[in-house]
TrEMBL record:
Name of the protein: mitogen-activated protein kinase kinase
Organism this protein belongs to: Ceutorhynchus assimilis (cabbage seed weevil)
Family: Belongs to the protein kinase superfamily. STE Ser/Thr protein kinase family. MAP kinase kinase subfamily.
Domain Protein kinase: 8-266
Taxonomy of the source species: Eukaryota, Metazoa, Ecdysozoa, Arthropoda, Hexapoda
């Protein structure tokens, strides 16, 4: 139904990104608590058209792996996109836990992301362009959902601006150094970003973390072997191979979603019984427990002395 931007009440800041910030808000008439992505507008009508198109994609989506979009407000200077509120994203979670995620949880993230990206391509002919841990959300019920189509676009769009979009750190080699014969990029650029994301979740650190600048990252992506899962850890052969497939440097050799959906890693975790919600709640309790004694160091010291 009709509602006004004045009906929205600020609760707290959820985070900042390159093209705006996300705020937890209350819709006063209904009492509903939601997440609102607030972005500045340059006022250019092309840009507004693109934003509305992106929102339409999300509004029309009924994929359980895509964050639910509730509508938007467009003012003179800003665009607000209203979404269902999730509990956290995988970037915040990694920083909170300060340790790698177990493979079975990563398996569920892989399934959700591949399904969401395949759905966007098949149903809306959209590529995401900004796949990374902060754009994969989760809640205590165990839902894992992809968000942020702020820079996604239709494949038919001119690719003029395509290189400026997305986060350098997760960018596929062909986006850094396009083939002059075939400069367009396709869904496989998102497949690369998914591979980087999964390695980050499995190791707890961003694979190019030693690089000081974006330029250094891009040079490494082009000039070195792709990241892979550390050999001394107990990952399944399916998981290892899935990462190798996603992080194939030559995009022509890199699989698209039809192939990925049939990969043993995805097949395995589609049917595996993994309670992501339960794991998340317990993991949070664990970090809270580890921190708790540190708040009373004096008392603890005294006890030890006794
Ligand atoms: P980025 O994705 O680059 O970190 P964003 O502005 O897109 O920047 O998002 C900022 C933060 O807001 C994210 O890291 C995420 O944790 C949080 N966030 C985004 N959307 C939601 C949502 N629907 N529910 C809960 N948190 C969200
Ligand atoms: Mg985001």
């Amino acid at each position: 139904y009709k509602t006004d931007i004045k009906d929205m009440e600020h609760i707290e800041e959820l985070g900042n990104g390159t093209c705006g910030h996300v705020v937890k808000m209350r819709h006063k008439p209904s009492g509903k608590i939601i997440a609102v992505k607030q972005m500045r507008r340059s006022g250019n009508s092309d840009e507004t058209k693109r934003i509305i198109m992106d929102i339409e994609v999300v509004l029309k989506s009924d994929c359980k792996y895509i964050v639910n979009c509730l509508g938007c407000f467009i003012t003179e200077s800003e665009v607000w996109i209203c979404m269902e509120l999730m509990d956290t994203c995988f970037d915040k979670l990694l920083k909170r836990l300060k340790q790698p995620l177990p493979e079975n949880v990563i398996g569920k993230v892989g399934v959700a992301t591949v399904e969401a990206l395949a759905y966007l391509k098949d149903m809306h002919n959209v590529i995401h362009r900004d796949v990374k841990p902060s754009n994969i959300l989760l809640d205590t019920k165990g839902n894992v959902k992809l968000c942020d189509f702020g820079i996604s676009g239709r494949l038919v769009d001119s690719m003029a601006n395509s290189r400026s979009a997305g986060c350098a750190a997760y960018m596929a080699p062909e986006r850094i150094e396009p083939d002059p014969q075939n400069p367009d990029y396709d869904v496989r650029a998102d497949v690369w970003s998914l591979g980087i994301t999964l390695v980050e979740l499995a190791t707890g650190v961003f694979p190019y973390q030693d690089c000081k600048t974006d330029f250094e990252v891009l040079t490494k992506v082009i000039g070195t072997d792709p990241p892979s899962l550390p050999l001394d850890k107990n990952f399944s052969p399916e998981f290892r191979d899935f990462v190798v497939c996603c992080l194939t440097k030559d995009k022509k050799q890199r699989p698209k979603y039809t192939k990925l959906k049939n990969h043993a890693f995805i097949k395995r975790y589609q049917v595996a019984d993994v309670n992501v919600g339960d794991w998340y709640v317990k993991a949070l309790h664990r970090v809270n427990d580890i921190r708790a004694p540190a708040r009373h160091p004096v008392r603890q010291f005294f006890t030890i002395q006794q």
